[in-house]
Amino acid sequence: MTQYDHSKWHGSTGGTTWMQRAMLKLFRFLPLPLAYACMAPVIPFYMLFDRRGYKASYNFFRHRIGRGPLASFFSVYANEFRMGQVVVDRFALYAGRSFDLQSDEMPVFTRLAEAEPGFMQLGSHAGNFEIAGYLLRSVKKMGTLVFSGETDTVMQQRAAMFARMNVEMVPVSDDMSHLFTLNAILSEGGIVSMPGDRVFGSQKTFSCPFFGDPAPFPAGPFILAAQRSVAMVAVFVMKESVRRYTVFVRQIGEKLDEALPARVRAEAMAKEFATCLESVVRKYPTQWFNFYDFWK
Questions:
Q1: Other beta carbons within 10 Å of 247
Q2: β-sheet bridge partners, residue 238
């Protein structure tokens, strides 16, 4: 559940480690609204210097959501501010603070978590997917795919949080050995958690309708689920207020004919996931943390 690229906010080098450690101590008592307020004046600098990210975000609001030029500009600010809040909330969790999750759809997750077979859980760069790994309870072991680029401080805090939740971090490896680990977790009836909206250099993609145009989605998660005939859910954790998140759970591919070839089912699942993601992003457009041209 740790697929976000938040390096633009908290860095990915040793130079920011001392700052992160200070943040952990500070968030033990600092009111979150005050932390958000301190972050707000910094956002224009990111908008000014990260031109690639600003342009991608602006074009999304202007051409995909359909907002006017001025509204799109302020939407970019709101988008950056929301991402900053997500990062702050993560550090607040590391420091021992709590958040409330609300959902009318948890029975879907609970039913699969209490059944014997393993299943796959897909996240995205919408909302705060990582928080689900800390607050959603399951007796099953979970393996969550993690990518490089985070500092030692962040990784240590994640490891400590996940250890209490029976979650194992599975780093992506160049020799693809992480696939064997994920397969083993599924075979043992566990949960595999990974992102469903990032290609990460892989050439294996499915072209899915997304906000009016075809967009590449990674084939790997869907092929793995189809080949192993395991259930798949998409989980979206969206911020509502300072301490409250809403969890949306969607079962993917539930109605597909098991007699269909695995690749056909995998592509259908990818398109269904893209539809679910678009639905959530349309409802929470400033909580899709995508800062590059997703359609290329």
A1: 20
A2: 246
Q: Which residue blocks in the chain are alpha helix, DSSP H? A: 7-10, 17-26, 32-39, 43-49, 51-59, 69-94, 106-114, 129-135, 152-163, 178-187, 220-228, 262-283
This prediction's pTM? 0.87
Q: Are residues 193 and 147 in contact, defined by beta-carbon separation less than 8 angstroms?
A: no
pLDDT band at 5; cut points 50, 70, 90? very low
pLDDT for res 9: 46
Complete edge-to-edge strand list for the sheet that includes strand 244-252: 100-102, 244-252, 231-239, 119-123, 191-195, 142-146, 167-171
Amino acid symbol at 290: N
Give the C-alpha separation, 66 to 82, whole Å: 20
Contact 265, 256 (CB under 8 A): yes
Specify the 3-state DSSP secondary structure of 103: coil
The model's pLDDT over 169-219, given as tens digits with 9 standing for 90+, comes to 777 777 677 788 888 899 999 999 888 998 765 678 999 999 999 999 999
CA distance 57 to 200: 19
